[in-house]
């Protein structure tokens, strides 16, 4: 079994990930909506905008997790996403992890704080999806 990184490393990876997501969202979210607003004077309702952000970020995370188990930030911090057995997570597990991570992070970080009491120090969304963050074996 691969060694498990500490919560500080995982939080640092998440902080770096947020910076990378600014670029992803600038290209895949802001540019199309600016084009609609400036070119056609169309402003979409808030629920459409939030759904678009959710979809763009979901595509980013699930694609990277599916292709190598690491996002760009996870590569930098030398951590990866696996199942407890060390196998790559299924597409269903990745989708569940992404969906459950939203309330885990947004609700005052309760799913992140869960790692303080979890027997393996895993986040709540990893526990619920049957995934775990491990040090990357190279």
Key attributes of the depicted protein:
single chain, 138 residues, two-stranded antiparallel sheet, mainly alpha, 6 helices
Number of helices: 6
From the spread of the alpha carbons, the general shape counts as elongated
Q: How helical, in percent, are the residues?
A: 55-70%
Computed CA radius of gyration, to the nearest angstrom: 16 Å
Describe the structure.
The chain is built from six helices and two strands, in the order αααβαααβ. The chain is mainly alpha-helical. It starts with 6 loop residues before the first helix and ends with a strand. A two-stranded antiparallel ribbon has the order 1-2. α1 (7-40) crosses α2 and α2 crosses α4 (91-106). The protein has helices at 7-40, 46-66, 72-76, 91-106, 110-113, 124-129, and strands at residues 79-82, 132-135. The protein has one domain (7-135).
Give the SSE layout.
Blueprint: H1 7-40, H2 46-66, H3 72-76, E1 79-82, H4 91-106, H5 110-113, H6 124-129, E2 132-135
Antiparallel strand pairs: 1-2
Helix pairs in contact: 1-2, 2-4
Question: Nutshell version of this structure?
Answer:
The protein has 138 residues and is mainly alpha-helical. The chain has helices at residues 7-40, 46-66, 72-76, 91-106, 110-113, 124-129, and strands at residues 79-82, 132-135. Strands 1-2 form a two-stranded antiparallel ribbon.
């Amino acid at each position: 079994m691969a060694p498990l990184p500490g919560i500080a490393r995982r939080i640092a990876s998440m902080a770096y990930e947020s910076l990378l997501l600014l670029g992803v969202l600038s290209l895949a979210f802001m540019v199309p909506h600016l084009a609609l607003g400036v070119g056609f004077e169309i402003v979409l309702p808030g629920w459409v905008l939030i759904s678009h952000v959710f979809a763009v970020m979901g595509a980013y995370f699930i694609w990277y997790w599916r292709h190598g188990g690491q996002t760009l930030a996870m590569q930098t911090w030398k951590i990866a996403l696996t199942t407890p057995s060390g196998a790559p997570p299924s597409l269903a597990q990745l989708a569940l992890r992404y969906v459950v991570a939203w309330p885990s992070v947004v609700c005052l970080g309760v799913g992140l704080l869960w790692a303080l009491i979890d027997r393996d120090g895993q986040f709540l969304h990893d526990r619920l999806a049957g995934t775990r963050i491990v040090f990357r074996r190279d």
